[in-house]
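Troubleshooting log. The previous structure file for this entry was overwritten by mistake, so regenerating from the original sequence record. Sequence copied from the archived sheet and checked twice against the printout by T.R.
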Amino acid sequence: MELPSTGTWLRLVLLAAGAIASTVLLLRTQPPAVDPVRARLSLAYYLDEAELTGTGPDGETIYRVRTARASHVVEDDSIAMTDVEMIYTPESPAGWNLNATQGRIPADANIIELRGTVVVTPGTNNTAATTITTDQLDVDPATRQARTKQPVVLDYEGQIVNAVGMEADLKRNRVKLLSDVNGEFTPVVE
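Regenerated output below.
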């Protein structure tokens, strides 16, 4: 048996090198394999003319939240609301009505955030003559506490007090103005 010539060996080596180089080049130019990703199904909802009712341990109604539209926000799992009316203790003499252009119930908090023009007025059975206006109010339905760090206008029987920040206890009809409190009271002459 005769061994191949040096030229034949050289041709075989060059042919093998060309095959390896073309394979490497082909692998580099192909797009990487992509794992198929299944689309996530995001469940979202909206309700027109919705009403939420909160009750106490005895089953008695503590508050009602009415909204023109409530919608589930998938990104943060919150509930966004428009044209919000919150009625606290509707059957109680110390009831309050809270109205706002927008509202939000965060997924991870037990508060209702009211935004836009927020107006707090006495309920139909409440004898208080106080109206509170602000741009933002966070309400804890369980404790009936309301807070804001924003400017507040308090109208008490026509007497106006301006402040920045407020804490209100809607159950006990108490309001604490936090800073920059100013106003003028005109005595009532009988």
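The longest strand covers residues 61-73. Archived copy saved in two places this time.
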